Amino acid sequence: MPTIIVPTDFSKNATAALRYAISLSKQIKADLVVFHCSHISPYALAAATSEEQMTRLLKDDEMHKLEKLEEQVTKAYKFAEIDKIPTSIKYIVEINPFLVERTIEIAKEHDAGLIIMGTHGATGITKFFFGSNTSIMISKSDVPVLAIPETYKYADLNNIVFASDLENISFELNQVIPFAEATKSKITVLYLDYGINADERKINRANEVINNIAYKKIKLEKQKATIEISMVGQVKKYIGSDKPDCLVMFTRERSLWDRLFFKGSKTEDMSTSISIPLLSFKKS
Questions:
Q1: Which residues, 6+ apart, have CB-to-CB distance to 227 below 8 Å?
Q2: Predicted pLDDT at 40
Q3: What domains can be seen in the chain, in order of their start residue?
Q4: Closest by alpha carbon to 180, among 229, 235, 244?
């Protein structure tokens, strides 16, 4: 994981994500790229009387946002009680209406292993039609996304819970293990057991996969499940008892039709409803 991308809009939840990213980058010795997707008022542009004046307005806005970005980073490092800001940190400010798509492009341009974003949840009509930028990022990004609750305070990663249906356990563990190795964390693979006969075969197969993996800090744990409680609710119940430092889940991209008329992604729903960081990967 050589590089972490942190998009920010200077909000409280973005600041929480930046603080987390700074502490995590120190723990795993990763570089940071901090990105602000700028939006300048169309009224300000419309007031420009020439192309030259418009260019100057755009340049002034970029410089102002860059100063604001550097100030936010300086304060975040001070909050983390780190005296020296690494010279390797990169600042990017662009005027671009497509925050999610551009963040993913920047992550790929820098060969990033992780995108870290803040989340404060979305409810009601806003969530139904649009969701949060973080949940959309989770849905779209091929680069893993780590969603940080606004009120979460950083703690070194030691204990990761990976909620899995065990269908593609070998592929999924191959994605999760490098993150666990970088943080020296143990992995608990959480399987919700609904008492179906086929479950035992999946569990035996998953244990065989785990036993043959070189990384030995992995265990499989079953939790009795019931259809009367949502999957999100049952995972949250386990989190409440185990107290992990991070939850891992896999998701798949959904169409606009899915978003409007069908039940949302469990991973996206989880990102707005739990009190610990959620690390999401794209399904195979």
A1: 194
A2: 66
A3: 3-149 (3.40.50.620), 159-244 (3.40.50.620)
A4: 244
